[in-house]
Write a structure and sequence with these properties.
Elements: E1 11-18, H1 22-30, H2 32-39, E2 41-42, E3 53-58, E4 67-76, E5 80-85, E6 102-111, E7 114-122, H3 129-155
Antiparallel strand pairs: 1-7, 2-3, 3-4, 4-5, 5-6, 6-7
Family: Belongs to the AHA1 family.
Domain Activator of Hsp90 ATPase homologue 1/2-like C-terminal: 19-154
Protein name: SRPBCC family protein
């Protein structure tokens, strides 16, 4: 794994070389139910369609009471998937809906040894100052773990 990070406060960038064909990595990203399996959210029976929202309960222990809500922005088969969400929206007593969202973009590049997956989450500079640093910290660590999760997931076949 080769996680890389930008020093910017507005964006988190991670990348990993996955020893799997691009079609396999794409399926792990674009099939909502499969995405949920490695990401830790129940998107059972849901689909990622540009312009549509998808909700599912978090399955990560201790966070099962939370619902992940994403607005799918772009779907370009085997190349790009992006969605918007409210980062680190973990306090059920807070209504995050008035806040700006961040954009999460997954980009796939075929390389000799497999598929290079790059994840960029941008827009943190627009998050309210009181939450910005914590949201950035939580999501930065979260994306590192998610790179490990997808690597294990696609290795299973």
């Amino acid at each position: 794994m080769n996680p890389s990070s930008d020093s910017s406060t507005d964006r988190i960038e991670k990348q990993i070389l996955l020893k799997a064909p691009r079609s396999r990595v794409w399926r792990a990203l674009s099939n909502a139910e499969e995405f949920g399996n490695w990401f830790g959210v129940n998107f059972s029976g849901k689909q990622f369609v540009a312009g549509q929202s998808v909700q599912g309960n978090i399955t990560y222990p201790g966070y099962e009471h939370l619902v992940m809500d994403v607005l799918v922005e772009r779907v370009e088969p085997e190349h790009h998937l992006s969605f918007r969400w409210h980062p680190a929206a973990v306090d059920i007593s807070i209504d995050y809906s008035p806040e700006p969202t961040t954009l999460v973009a997954f980009e796939l590049t075929e390389v000799d040894s497999g598929t290079l997956l790059r994840v960029v989450e941008s827009g943190f500079d627009r998050i309210p100052a009181a939450r910005r640093e914590e949201a950035f910290r939580l999501n930065s660590g979260g994306w590192e773990q998610q790179m490990v999760n997808i690597e294990k997931h696609v290795a299973k076949g």
